[in-house]
Amino acid sequence: MGRRSSGSRALPSRPVAPVRHGRLRNSHPVAAIAKLLAALVAIIAVSSGAVTAFAVYDTVSASGPGIHVAHLPGAPSVKPAPAVGPIDGEVNLLLAGSDTRTGQVGYQTKAELAGSSGAGNNDVTMLLHVSADHSSATVVSFPRDLVSIPLCGKGISSAMFNSTLSRGLSCTVQTVEKMTGLSIPYAAIITFNGVTGMSNAVGGVTVCLATPVKDPYTDPQLNLAAGQQTLVGDTALSFLRSRHGVGDGSDLGRISNQQVFLSALTRKITSGGVLNNPLTLYKLANSALSNMKLSDTLTNPSTLVSIALALKGINLSKIVFLQYPTVADPADPNRVVPLASAAAALTTALRSDQPISLTGKLGRAAIADSAAVATATPIPSASAAPPTAASPAPAPTSIALPSTISGQSADQTTCTQGFTNRK
Predict the structure, then answer these.
(1) Alpha-carbon distance 208 to 408, whole Å?
(2) Domain range holding 408?
């Protein structure tokens, strides 16, 4: 099956790789990726001072009553957020990037809205898990083309994972709750608008490109040279949306490309230059939160601030980005199904609430930055407490995931590989 275009214009012919997962519809679905990344970073950023907390209060207070999310039977009740200070215990927060064009800038005509409207699909979904002792965090990306899922927490379904949001945010949450064994009290939907403001707010995000990245299927089209590239505005959006231009051209390759960008963005956000700039922090928080629909458990601004404070002291090496483990669907090479043994190991690790270490490879579109590895020094958390004379508490035991699970930690400097016609 040939590649599908995202518009009616003629596109240059491209070599076809043997297997593709996650083919784009005509609806520009992956623009919501940027919103998802912005939201994750904004949650970390809002912990830094009163002016950013004001952005949270100001934006969330105007966002309405929030979405009520129904959970699986037996889920614990949500604890009220503390008046001041980090939230108690672990945090599980799901972010669903909607591909809807309804109400989004640049999509007004009937033809433009035909690709996706209304609730839309969750073409990007990430689960943020913060350990109960606030010493580590894990971000799990779920492939949009995943099938054989416990749809809405019920029986196994052949529906694609990205169709869960069209059934309501509760369906997405319940599906992930069943897949991970976690109760997820916090959730949000992120739409197209705002990525330009996010990248502009931090002065652009510098990423490493191991090879040129070209993609005529994005708007604007990508034509980036190899080397260090600072991505701003619509170019950053196209980079995050690109599938045909990175890795093996699959949705799984796109996920690892997002991890390269997100790691770079996290390092920049947690640097002193950003954390110490109240205006930048306000812009970051406002850009992300003004483009989110929150669950009713997040509409109290104190809750978002307390979650951010729980993230504030985590060392970058303890923030892990990984892809939910999958394997090609035997019935359809354009779909993926859970890799049962690895998925079970991930579920056990998440439920044990211990730090996670990766033993597998980087994702399909990522490669280690050899120059950075040669000169690397440990990167502490920007807000880590200074050493004291007291004996430090023993570090929690890390759980090593199977080598079939790919990803990276936030302190790893990685590069994106442009499209290659490889298996």
Answers:
(1) 15
(2) 29-378+396-416
